[in-house]
From TrEMBL:
Keyword vocabulary terms for this entry: DNA-binding, Phosphoprotein, Transcription, Transcription regulation, Two-component regulatory system
OmpR/PhoB-type domain segment(s): 123-223
Example of a GO cellular component annotation carried by this entry: cytosol
Molecular function terms, GO-annotated: phosphorelay response regulator activity; transcription cis-regulatory region binding
InterPro entries (alphabetical): CheY-like_superfamily (IPR011006), OmpR/PhoB-type_DNA-bd (IPR001867), Sig_transdc_resp-reg_C-effctor (IPR016032), Sig_transdc_resp-reg_receiver (IPR001789), WalR-like (IPR039420), WH-like_DNA-bd_sf (IPR036388)
Modified residues (4-aspartylphosphate): 51
Pfam (any one): Response_reg
DNA-binding region (UniProt annotation): 123-223
Every Response regulatory domain range: 2-116
Source organism (scientific name): Candidatus Aphodosoma intestinipullorum
GO biological process: regulation of DNA-templated transcription
Listed name of the protein: Response regulator transcription factor
Length: 224
């Protein structure tokens, strides 16, 4: 699950990034309006943390663009401007939450997790076939049998389980799980290795789901 931090203060960005990474979220950053526009135009995010006052623009304008373009990214406004007018305008434009600076990082993290959970129909867990994946405890079970996955294997399975029967390209999967720095990769052989190991672990646990290769495109998660 991927979060974008739109914040021009480097130290605050770093604190937020580390806190969210501790929650095993993929975190990307934008220090200004132009970078935020570029990233939101190219990628989708489960949650965007959006500052209003940016050095080259206004966060509310970015929010307006997202809604106009039909983007479904969830947005939490984080801003030092705590006026009622800004809060009402942000919520009217489609923001999901508003948190005034200064705030406790624990509260911000809780709100991000709550927003993502609401986006997943209020559940911390997702089940497909006999496999259950818990986003809070990071446990995966197949018919009650625990499956030990490494961080990336878990992230890959989580991405697929939220999109069953959808064809996912290698590029889309890599960007979602590893972040936008994946653009620098020469190839996607590392994805093949991770999925190969994940398939093996699912099969050994008696899972009734399988990640199938779609020739010339990528992969798809299906029930057996």
């Amino acid at each position: 699950m991927k979060v974008l931090i739109v914040e021009d203060e480097p130290s605050l960005r770093e604190i937020i990034r580390k806190a969210l990474q501790n929650e095993r979220l993929v975190v990307e950053e934008a220090a200004d309006f132009a970078t935020a526009c570029e990233k939101t135009g190219l990628y989708d995010y489960e949650c965007i943390l959006l500052d209003i006052m940016l050095p080259d623009g206004n966060g509310l304008e970015l929010l307006q663009r997202l809604k106009k373009e039909g983007k479904r990214d969830r947005v939490i406004i984080i801003s030092a401007k705590d006026s009622i007018e800004d809060k009402v305008k942000g919520l009217d434009l489609g923001a999901d939450d508003y948190l005034a600076k200064p705030f406790h990082i624990a509260e911000l993290t809780a709100r991000v997790k709550s927003l993502i959970r609401r986006n997943n129909n209020g559940s911390n867990a997702v089940t497909l076939g006999n496999v259950t994946l818990d986003n809070t405890t990071f446990r995966v079970e197949a018919g009650g049998t625990p499956i030990e996955l490494n961080r990336k294997e878990f992230d890959i399975l989580r991405y697929f389980m939220h999109r069953p029967n959808h064809m996912i390209s290698k590029e889309t999967l890599a960007e979602a799980v590893w972040g936008d720095n994946i653009d620098q990769a020469d190839n996607f052989d590392f994805i093949y290795a991770q999925i190969k190991n994940l398939r093996k672990k699912l099969q050994q646990a008696g899972a009734t789901i399988e990640i199938k290769a779609v020739y010339g495109f990528g992969y798809k998660l299906v029930e057996l």
